[in-house]
Amino acid sequence: QVQLVESGGGLVQVGGSLRLSCAASGPTLSLYSMGWFRQAPGKEREFVASITWSGGSTYYADSLKGRFTISRDSAKNTVYLQMNSLKPEDTAVYYCNAEFLKYNYWGQGTQVTVSS
């Protein structure tokens, strides 16, 4: 079973930056695609970005390209989400996700609040 622990959330002003971390543990991590999702109050959870452990291929929600960057450190089993030029609409709980075939794991989430 894969375990995911997010960190790095907090309160930031408009235009600021944050870097979220997701520490992963468990067997065969290299098989998984790692992703970030977010859920704002009253809204459905939405895809933010994903990356493969093996080749580092990255994918982004179209609306976030250019501001958010996903990366991974395989030696540390950690995935990062660098968020720049933050806007109030980026306020949400951010969740780390690991997916491989029928296996799907979630972290507990970390709150990001962007204040104006």
Q: Which helices and strands occur, and which strands form pairs?
A:
Elements: E1 3-7, E2 10-13, E3 18-25, E4 33-39, E5 46-52, E6 58-60, E7 68-73, E8 78-83, E9 92-100, E10 103-106, E11 110-115
Parallel strand pairs: 2-11
Antiparallel strand pairs: 1-3, 3-8, 4-5, 4-9, 5-6, 7-8, 9-10, 9-11
Structural description of this entry:
The protein is an all-beta fold and 116 residues long. It contains no helices and eleven strands. The strands form two sheets. Strands 2, 4, 5, 6, 9, 10 and 11 form a seven-stranded mixed beta sheet that branches. Strand 9 and strand 10 form a beta hairpin. The mean pLDDT is 94.
Features:
single chain, 116 residues, mainly beta, seven-stranded mixed β-sheet, four-stranded antiparallel β-sheet, 11 strands
In the predicted model, the low-confidence regions spanning at least 5 consecutive residues are: none
In which range does the helix fraction lie?
A: under 10%
- Give the helix/strand class: mainly beta
Strand and helix order: EEEEEEEEEEE
Strand content: over 45%
Major sheet details: 7 strands, mixed
Shape: globular
Q: End-to-end span in angstroms? A: 40 Å
Mean pLDDT: 94
Radius of gyration: 13 Å
Q: Count the helices. How many?
A: 0
Number of strand elements: 11
